[in-house]
Amino acid sequence: MAFLWLPVPPGLATREVTRERRFVAMPAGHELAGREEVPIAALRGEPFRSAARRRAGTTRGGGREHFTYDCSLEGERFGDCVGRYV
Predict the structure, then answer these.
(1) Largest CA distance in the chain
(2) Residue 85: what are its φ and ψ, rounded to 5°?
(3) Cis before residue 9, ω within 30 degrees of 0?
(4) Average predicted confidence (pLDDT) for the chain
(5) Which residues, 6 or more positions from 24, have their beta carbon under 8 angstroms from its beta carbon?
(6) For the chain, how are helix, strand and coil distributed in percent, rounded to 5?
């Protein structure tokens, strides 16, 4: 059993048990600040901070291939990554 993000790999039987919203934080003066909703595509090219790369779960369609990372402090439990949605 595992919790997955979409898209689900072929060959797995799945059942949706919940949906969760994602949130983004940014400076008040950012051009996207103040919007009620921010589509993930609007974040293209924006730098972001995340948990360690192997645990960064907020990705376009669940695919990490759309993000680049500079993880200088990645550790077993905690990490500090600066990423960019590409």
Answers:
(1) 45
(2) -80, 125
(3) no
(4) 67
(5) 32, 38, 43, 48
(6) 15, 15, 70
Cα–Cα dist 54/5, whole Å: 13
Q: Does the predicted model carry a pTM greater than 0.70?
A: no
List strands edge to edge, sheet with 81-85.
47-50, 81-85, 67-71
Dist CA 57 CA 82 (whole Å): 14
* Residue 58 pLDDT grade (very low, low, confident, very high; cuts 50, 70, 90): very low
Rg (CA), the chain: 15
Look at residues 34, 64, 73 and name the one whose alpha carbon lies nearest to residue 85: 64
Write down the domain spans for the chain: 40-85
pLDDT band at 33 (very low <50, low <70, confident <90, very high): very high
